[in-house]
Amino acid sequence: MNRKLLLGLLIALLPVLAIAQDRVRIGPEAGDREIILSGTGNSTNDLDGFQFGLLGSLGWFYTDHLELGLRQSANYADVPNTGDNAWNGSTRGFVDYHFIATDRAWPFIGGSLGYTYGDRVSDSPFAGLEAGLKYFVRPKTFIVGAAEYQYFFDNLSNIDNAFDDGAFIYTLGIGYLF
Question: How many domains does the chain have?
Fold first, then answer.
């Protein structure tokens, strides 16, 4: 009889235990800041030249879904068949809007405006469109993959023609919310 009473009491307490557990929020909340470190790289098909780069990002969530921030990239290239190398970089502000696909997967779309400079590039302003995915491996830590299309222009009068002569930027990195 005592076993049945004890079992009945435990079963009756299960809903209370379930309610008492705190659900840990995964992903950003308004006011969170974010830091990301990403890498890029490529080489020729003969492996006689290569390029790699680092991209750092610092963002702030204005709302749970809208992020504003700044990105800095630095790239190094070993130019094939010349024995030459080059450094270039870019600095840009960005705005991203995040969607919730699942608890852990947060796709985003956005845009950026910045400036590129360096040894083998024309120093110029650019605008960009981007899309990507942040996958949270822990409540505040994520892996991010993104693609960005940047188009370069010298002044506002040639911005329409510049869209056709842009460049794709791909990144893969890790980020943290704090």
Answer: 1
Whole-prediction pTM value? 0.80
- Per-residue pLDDT at 148: 92
pLDDT of residue 101: 82
Q: Is 156 a member of any domain? A: yes
Residues of the chain with pLDDT under 50: none
Write the DSSP assignment of 55-72 as a string of letters.
Answer: EEEEEEESSSSEEEEEEE
Residues contacting 80, CB < 8 A, separation 6+: 44, 46, 48, 49
| pLDDT tens digits for range 134-143 | 999 999 999 9
Say what the pLDDT of residue 63 is. Answer: 97
User: Tokens 């992903």 — which residue?
Assistant: 27
Report how far residue 12's alpha carbon sits from residue 26's, in angstroms, rounded to the nearest whole number: 30
CATH assignment of the domain containing 106 = 2.40.160.20
- Give the chain's count of helices (H) and strands (E): 2, 8
Query: Cβ-count burial of 45 within 10 angstroms (0-12 exposed, 13-18 middle, 19+ buried)?
Result: exposed
